[in-house]
Design a protein that fits this description.
By secondary structure, the chain is α+β, with helices and mostly antiparallel strands. The chain is built from 3 helices and 7 strands; from the N terminus they run ββαββαβββα. The radius of gyration is 15 Å and the shape is globular.
């Protein structure tokens, strides 16, 4: 993979690429630290954290990064569109459940978070931990 104008920053999690195009804000760093701990929980298979200038991807299935990124982007866009249709203001989180897995998508400030997990994982605790 070729480097672009973005530079590869120090990796907070083994094999989790961090791409930074500008100065990291403390909010992003705090979320990254929380997600690093959440990632250790049983049933959590990975996460994507992104802001306008940085992104961290930590997934069990590294070969499916693009598919996971597209899925989380589509979930976020669909939830924004539904919120407009129903005249809802801010959506705190969106949970999409499949037969055996689920995806939690959240926006915290300018940061977008997607947590991928087994269906049996406790997403309520994950939401609380992210919002601390």
């Amino acid at each position: 993979m070729q480097k672009t104008t973005a530079e590869i920053a120090n990796e907070p999690v083994e094999n989790a690429p961090v791409i930074s195009a500008g100065d990291d804000k403390s909010g992003f760093a705090n979320l990254a630290a929380s997600l690093t701990e959440i990632r250790k929980l049983k049933g959590v298979s990975g996460y994507i954290l992104r802001s306008d200038t940085s992104a961290i991807v930590d997934l069990s299935e590294q070969d499916k990064i693009i598919e996971y990124a597209i899925l989380s982007s589509q979930i976020a866009e669909s939830s924004r569109e539904m919120a407009k249709q129903f005249n809802l203001t801010d959506i705190e989180s969106v949970l999409v459940e499949g037969k055996s897995v689920k995806v939690l998508c959240m926006s915290v400030g300018e940061n977008k978070i997607s947590v991928f997990m087994e269906k049996t994982a406790t997403h309520d605790w994950i939401i609380k931990r992210i919002l601390l």
